Here is the input.
Amino acid sequence: MYQYTQVKEQPVLNAGTKGVRRYILSLDNHVSIQEALTAFCKEKEIYCGKVTGLGAVNSATFRFLDPATLQYVDKTFEEQMEITNLTGNISQKDNQVYLHIHITASRRDYTCIGGHLLDARINGACELFVEDYYLTSAGRRADEETGLNMYKF
Ligand code: FE
Here is the structure.
């Protein structure tokens, strides 16, 4: 039904735990979230972790996977939106940083759209919290049944 790996942390006397590096990241205006976050993960060598955040974008491309046909449907929205939530994970596939990000974004009329994020362009701010589980590893493998790149521990 599932597989899992425990996040490795080690107690350090009077100093919390070891195994997690935490960053607060602010992306520059007009950059691609995918590009900037990938670059940051490469710089810090983050291959297992978590990202959460918020911000504002003027373009976002979502990907929907139809489970019946295993066909991807991509759709781009070119309008100003607030990222009301960004949740994602960082892993490794073919020795590269692999990001899996979902967002919910609110439009001018306060309705929301959301889904699996391919990429988005910042127009305003984008503030992310990144956790690097540097003692833990998480890979990916292509899964035929679902059409997804599933975790491989
Ligand atoms: Fe997804």
Observations:
- The chain has one domain: 18-152.
- The longest strand covers residues 112-132.
- The two ends are 14 Å apart (CA to CA).
